[in-house]
Design a protein that fits this description.
12 strands, seven-stranded parallel beta sheet, 15% strand, elongated, five-stranded parallel beta sheet, D-isomer_2_OHA_DH_cat_dom, oxidoreductase, NAD(P)-bd_dom_sf, D-isomer_DH_NAD-bd
């Protein structure tokens, strides 16, 4: 049987990907260097069955994003796998139309992201960003002006309760005795209850949460979800944290909410443009703690997500349907294309 050829552009998130792939003789891994031209990269990808795709949209050149235009140039492509749980540079609809399975690594970095989110909650509640800014400005005098709050027994509202949200809920409940509520149209009330979480709608979450933490993917439905109207519905003095994806929250609306005091403090790991420009007003706001989309950038998380991705490529090379397919409706067309390419039928699992 022919080898399953897969390519990646520039770099992999962790050496674990290459080490895991190297153990599978059915895989042929091709590196496309950063200095390669778009034409050279597309030519290489056109001969490949798999494409391992950077998940951060601003790291990957736009012509190499997996959209209809690129897919039209890749006749052999069967599977595109995102580096992480997010898949901003990949279009699920275009992949489905092309018969390409879009795979992500959901859950692989859940611990790293969840810890980061809770850490930001604590930093905001204790007003660490404001205290830091005051000391730098030489205005650190009366400590009572920096009086904060404790996380214990507060209501934490999760917009999205998948792998990361579930772990955030567990930490907040067990370590801090929090009431956790979640708005997630894809998870039923019974499932959330089993996780110790109350299912609510968004308006109820905004009205009742002391801390609002974002854990949903960026989709057409969630783009701009947290805008001026959403911030206005939140409790005055709410803590806002996001470790999900930029563009889910409106940055200008958040700035207005911070300046008005509607939002007390914010923890931001994701941005509309990454990294944000150095003069971005949210970066310089005294009530914001910021990081550069690094919530899942831990040694453990990156080793885990890259191993999961490599094993997904091994699954398809061995004739098994890979897990974590984001566009499951593609399966019949994807299986037919696989059979045509390799002369064998894909097996579930």
């Amino acid at each position: 049987m022919a080898k399953f050829r897969l390519a990646y552009y520039g770099f992999v998130p962790h050496q674990m990907f290459l080490e895991t792939c190297a153990k599978d003789p059915a895989l042929e891994v091709i590196h496309i260097p950063l200095e390669a031209s778009t034409a050279e990269a597309v030519q290489t990808l056109s001969s490949c069955h798999g494409y391992y795709v950077m998940a951060a949209r601003d790291e990957l050149p736009k012509p190499l994003h997996v959209h209809a235009e690129l897919l039209g140039k890749l006749p052999n492509l069967l599977m595109a796998a995102s580096y992480g749980a997010g898949y901003d540079p990949l279009d699920p609809v275009a992949c489905t139309e092309a018969g390409v399975a879009l795979v992500n690594q959901a859950g692989g970095n859940a611990e790293g992201v969840a810890e980061h989110a809770v850490g930001m909650m604590l930093a905001c509640l204790k007003r660490m960003p404001e205290s830091h800014a005051a000391m730098i400005a030489g205005k650190a005098q009366n400590r009572a002006t920096m009086m904060g709050w404790e996380l214990r027994n507060r209501t934490v509202g999760l917009v999205g309760c998948g792998h990361v949200g579930t772990r955030v809920a567990e930490i907040c409940r067990l370590a801090f005795g929090c009431r956790v509520i979640a708005a997630d149209p894809y998870v039923d009330a019974a499932t959330l209850k089993a996780r110790g979480v109350e299912k609510v709608d968004l308006d109820t979450l905004f009205a009742e949460a002391d801390v609002v933490s974002i854990h949903c993917p960026l989709t057409p439905q969630t783009r701009g979800l947290i805008g001026a109207a959403a911030f206005a519905k939140m409790k005055k003095g709410v803590i806002f944290v996001t470790t999900a994806r930029g563009s889910i929250h409106d940055e200008a609306a958040l700035l207005d909410a911070l300046n008005s005091g509607q939002v007390a403090t914010a923890g931001l790991d994701v941005w509309e443009v990454e990294p944000p420009p150095t003069d971005h007003p949210l970066l310089h706001h005294r009530a914001v703690i910021a990081s550069q989309h690094t919530a899942g950038v831990t040694n453990e998380s990156r080793a885990n997500i890259t191993k999961i991705a490599a094993l997904a490529f091994s699954d398809i090379a061995a004739g098994r349907m890979p897990p974590r397919i984001v566009n499951p409706e593609v399966k019949p067309k994807f299986a037919a294309r696989y059979a045509a390419a390799f002369g064998t039928q894909l097996k579930e699992g």
